[in-house]
Amino acid sequence: MSVTVEWKGLAKSYGAHSALTHVNGTIAGNKIIGLLGRNGSGKTTLLALIKGLLRPTSGQLLINGQAPFENRALAREICFVRDSRMTYGSFKVREALKLASASWPNWDHGYALHLAERFSLPLEKKVQSLSLGMESSLNAIIGLASRAPLTLMDETYNGMDAPSRYLFYEELLEDYMRSPRMLVLSTHLIEEVGRLFEEVVLVDQGTIVLHETTEQLLMMTYVVIGTAPDVERFTDSLQVLHTQVLGNMKSAVVFGELSKEQERLADLYHLDIQPVPLQDIIVHLTSRKEVPSS
């Protein structure tokens, strides 16, 4: 099952507070997508709307042409990994995995037990007694073993220690290669997991402000370094996201593809052009009052 998610003028409010406004766009196909943005930007609300846990205040959200709210058939094709302590708290881990198996038709119980062994998850311990790291591992296992055509992970692995997180990234990529599907990962750990993203959706102040392939986003952002007057001349008509000055030297992060003419000017002014890591791009974009259009 290939998934297409469409937003058409989507908005969600909680009383007087507007969590999402004027959300438009489409994500489609089997791919790993990074849902990025600052705390409070609206990412979790958007994921809850996709899962069908919330009704939109206005506009439409469609998954393969269907609205997910109160759609039981569609719910079985979507796994939204959240707080397992709330859902399975009084159950043992082994029982929680068995209960989870009834929620998704593509559930792979053998794979779930394999992951539990890899993460050293105590199967006979109650979920509510797990450490934060172990609970995060359980959340990750449910998300992967669900094999749901649309899997949503909201900061699922933040409680894990570094070795466990890297084990999760390894398993996620290997399982995605075995069973392609749409995986949407909301995270602040961009430096670690960004290499897995095929596309990036950036949410800022309650709306989607950017949707690009990761490759394109990296190509269209660069840093130029040189003497302050030369950098200022070079960037005079360009979209600059961030600048830094050290003595008579200056660096400027530029949003926009580097043209042949700009390459010539950089060479003429003896400027150094370097790539910008994905995490830095997201930080600079969300630190601006307005995100430049791509």
Structural account:
- The protein is an alpha/beta fold.
- The protein has 2 domains: about 5-215, P-loop containing nucleotide triphosphate hydrolases (Rossmann fold, 3-Layer(aba) Sandwich); about 220-285, Alpha-Beta Plaits.
- About 35% of the residues lie in helices and about 30% in strands.
- The chain is built from 12 helices and 13 strands.
- The chain has helices at about 45-50, 70-75, 85-90, 95-100, 110-120, 130-145, 160-180, 190-195, 215-220, 230-235, 260-270, 280-285; strands at about 5-15, 15-30, 30-35, 60-65, 80, 150-155, 180-185, 200-205, 205-215, 220-225, 240-245, 250-255, 270-275.
- The strands form 3 sheets. The protein has a 6-stranded mixed sheet, sandwiched between helices.
- α5 packs antiparallel against α6 and α6 runs parallel beside α7.
- The longest helix is centred in the middle third of the chain and has 17 residues, at about 160-180.
- The protein is globular and about 65 Å long.
Strand content: 25-35%
Q: Which structural class do the helices and strands define?
A: alpha/beta
**How much is the average pLDDT?**
93
Q: How many separate domains make up the residues?
A: 2
Q: Output the CATH topology of the largest domain.
A: Rossmann fold
Question: If classified by CATH, what would the architecture of the largest domain be?
Answer: 3-Layer(aba) Sandwich
Order of helices and strands: EEEHEHEHHHHEHEHEEHEHEEHEH
Distance between the ends: 30 Å
Count helical runs: 12
Give start-end ranges of low-pLDDT stretches. Answer: none
Keywords: ATP-binding, Nucleotide-binding
Protein name: ABC-2 type transport system ATP-binding protein
GO molecular function, one term: ATP hydrolysis activity
Domain ABC transporter: 5-230
